[in-house]
Amino acid sequence: MSAARDTAPRLLAISDLHIGYRENRAIVDGLRPGSAADWLLVAGDVGERMSDITWALGTLRQRFAAVVWVPGNHELWSVRHDQSQLRGEPRYEQLVERCREIDVITPEDPYPVWDGPGGPVTVAPLFLLYDYTFRPDGAMTKEAGLARAYEAGVVCTDERLLHPDPYPSIEAWCEARLEATEHRLAGRDADLPTVLVNHFPLVRQPTRILRYPEFAQWCGTERTADWHIRFAAFAVVYGHLHIPRTTWHDGVRFEEVSLGYPREWRRRQSPPGIPRQILPA
Ligand SMILES: [Fe+2]
Ligand SMILES: [Fe+2]
């Protein structure tokens, strides 16, 4: 009986694999499903190089029945040692193309329905970015918030490597993503609950425990504060903070599923690289 329970299909999630680190690459190499019918949600920050990203997602896709990916900020960086020198939206489109070649589901594909235990639920991979509205307390504008970050010496590398082309700014790209995504979500099957997957937290609260509060500016947008209610989320999966934990907001389970950097996961009690079970709950 226990064997049957062990092999029942599960909807699993992980993020922030950062396989530029040798130790993290080895973890991905060792990652296996419990059942051949398991799905894996990968909530961004697989790595920076196109070849690393496609290796990791392709390897996982060979093992899991489905792999659903959303981009993190790191996939969108334009770095000198990458074979792809595209920036901004064209880089994102290239990532989507590569995912399609290896049968990995992206935010640009029809939302898949998890029909296994705990289902049916619509799995909605989202690409929303951030718009500098998670500002430090007292900062009224983006400029004031950024000034505080520069003073504190806590400036996200995105400022140098994440380009918004062809948009004039990251917040303009974010605005376009929000509008397009709201439209997609509004058109989904309203009878089914959703699992929303986004690299950044959809609500501000999880960022309140960041060691450097100025960093929250690069962590999301106030515009999604009620999306878990509006779009009937059964659960929300995210990463980016590298603070794996479960929190509840308006009765909805939010799962931060980061692996994170070796110096981070070495400090934790639990073994690294175990995906979080989203369904069955
Ligand atoms: Fe990360
Ligand atoms: Fe990130």
Describe the 3D structure.
The protein is α/β, with parallel strands linked by helices and about 280 residues long. About 30% of the residues lie in helices and about 15% in strands. It has 10 helices and 10 strands. The strands form 2 sheets. A 6-stranded mixed beta sheet has the order 4-5-6-7-9-8. Strand 6 (about 195), helix 9 (about 225-230) and strand 7 (about 235-240) form a beta-alpha-beta unit. The longest helix is centred in the middle third of the chain and has 17 residues, at about 170-185.
- Which ligands does the model contain, each kind named once? fe (ii) ion
Supply the helix-strand structural class.
Answer: alpha/beta
Strand residues, percent: 15-25%
Tell me the overall shape.
globular
SSE string, helices as H and strands as E: HEHEHEHHEEHHHEHEEEHE
Low-confidence parts lasting 5 or more residues at pLDDT below 50? 1-5
**Main pleated sheet:** 6 strands, mixed
Distance between the termini: 19 Å
Placed side by side, the strands forming the largest sheet appear as 4-5-6-7-9-8
Q: Helical segment tally?
A: 10
| Rg computed from alpha carbons, rounded to a whole number of angstroms | 18 Å
Q: Which bin fits the share of residues in helices?
A: 25-40%
The residue-averaged pLDDT reads 96
What is the tally of beta strands?
Answer: 10
Brief synopsis:
With 281 residues, the chain is of the alpha/beta class.
